[in-house]
Design a protein that fits this description.
Shape: globular
Distance between the termini: 40 Å
Largest sheet: none
Strand content: under 5%
Structural class: mainly alpha
Helix content: over 70%
Order of helices and strands: HHHHHHHHHHH
Number of strands: 0
Number of domains: 1
Length: 273
Amino acid sequence: MSTKKLGVKVVTFVAALGIGLVAGAVTGLIGASGVMVIVPGLTLLGYSAAGAIGASLFADAIASLVVAWTYYQNKNLNLTQGWWIVLGSVAGAQIGSVLSPRIPDVGLGNAFGIFLLVTAVVFWVRGARGIKPGEPDSETEEHAPSGFVAALRRHVVASGIGLGLLVGIMSGVLGAGGGVMILLILVFVMGYKMHEGVGTSTLIMAFTAASGAIGHAMTGDLPLRAAAVASLGTVVGGRVAARYANRVNEAVLSKVVGAVFGLLGVAMVVQML
């Protein structure tokens, strides 16, 4: 092997490792997929979009398990209602991985970016007010959920599977583990506290991402070497970020989630312009 080729391989390895490190930090802090870091990063390194999406799902699955374990150690993991989302999302991820090559991603990317920005504002405002979604005082008669959300909470199995199916389809299409959407479901629909929502969403995301990665592997869109190197970075970044996130209070974590969602939303919209 020539010195030039060896240099290229080393640079690619270090870059993929760094990409994974940043993606893991995002997952550890807010329970979200690192897709908006890994996919653009690997694409710049010369991988196809489909291959980058497959690698992103693979890395998400590994990072999510590490992050979920950290939250479990801090007693911030609750799968009582989450298992139904797992069932729906795993099935949906297979559908999404089949649909992915057939759907133009510009419109989806812009829509998801705007969705992230709106969500960022909601979480930041809640953190600024000291309002912690899912706390007992939010379930008083004055603040009790009504209408559609109340109906979803009354039918946990049906709502969990149905919402999980939608998350899984979006996961397979966009190459994300679905952490953002799962977190929103757990916190705003199921009534989880912020820390529990992040911890539980990462574990559910592990199943969803693994299902999507398998789907991409079956279609030949999973570069294992790049996926493995990026995964190594996500393990380190995810563990460090998750340990920090478990030390801050609910209001601060809500602000952190809002800030990161905002940055990711802006990045995604700009990327699609």
